[in-house]
TrEMBL record:
Protein name, entry field: YCII-related domain-containing protein
Chain ranges passing through the membrane: none
Similarity annotation: Belongs to the YciI family.
Pfam families found in the cross-reference section: YCII (PF03795)
Phylogenetic placement of the source organism: Bacteria, Pseudomonadati, Pseudomonadota, Betaproteobacteria, Burkholderiales
Source organism of the structure: Rugamonas apoptosis
Domain of life: Bacteria
Location of the YCII-related domain: 3-77
Stored InterPro entries: Dimeric_a/b-barrel (IPR011008), YCII (IPR005545)
Amino acid sequence: MLFFVTLNNRRPPEDIEAQQASHRDWLIANARAGRIALAGPMEPCTGGLIMAHCADRGELDLMMADDPFVIHGSVEVQVLCGVVA
């Protein structure tokens, strides 16, 4: 399934910036594993958007729980929709 996920910043920009490198590593690892099709920041810079390819919502939730932004409570995760692809 394809899932569209928004990450909405909950912390000041300096906190987000401090975790940016580890978040980017998480994105790259999941993209290489085939779980993230695309990702990028929103404009204005209030968070990000991820298009994820996961077997089901459970796999998506497990993947998102490992995001450093989520671990540190820096973002609010919102799953907009999941579609069969």
